[in-house]
Design goal:
about 100 residues, mainly alpha, Cytochrome Bc1 Complex, Chain D, domain 2, binds heme C
Length: about 100
């Protein structure tokens, strides 16, 4: 019986990982592709806000954290408002960055 629970545990862990992206890989991508504008910990770079004349939400804030993974991925791949699409990241790399953002809170 105990063994069966272990198998279920491992299977569900693998399933969760395949959907959630890899936050560690996402951190490296975030530092390369997002940090200059969104700051090391998700708090916007004030110089960028001033230059782009826009207010950027802190990525740690509940407003951003409540956004679904799919919608966050869309922002990365397609841009939003004044943010241009991040062309260097798509598919699983975008999933990884989204997973990393969700660890910031
Ligand atoms: C050149 C600067 C720049 C880069 C690089 C950039 N962003 Fe943005 N991002 C912005 C700006 C500006 C906004 C606000 C857009 C608006 O509201 O018009 C924004 C908005 C967002 C939002 C929505 C939160 C909000 O303020 O409404 C998310 C999520 C986000 N960015 C994630 C990312 C991720 C993840 C990356 C890296 C893959 C990234 N951004 C790279 C400038 C940037």
């Amino acid at each position: 019986m105990k063994r069966m629970f272990n198998v279920i545990g491992i299977a569900s862990l693998a399933a969760a990982m395949s959907f959630a992206g890899n936050a560690a890989a996402g951190k490296a991508d975030y530092n390369k592709a997002c940090k200059s504008c969104h700051g090391a910990d998700g708090k916007a770079n004030p110089a960028i806000e001033k230059m782009m004349k826009v207010e950027m939400k802190d990525l740690k804030s509940p407003d951003v954290q409540k956004v679904s993974d799919a919608d966050l991925k869309k922002i990365v791949e397609e841009g939003q408002g004044k943010m241009k699409p991040v062309k260097s990241l798509s598919g699983s790399a975008a999933d990884d960055v989204v997973a990393y953002i969700k660890t910031l809170k």
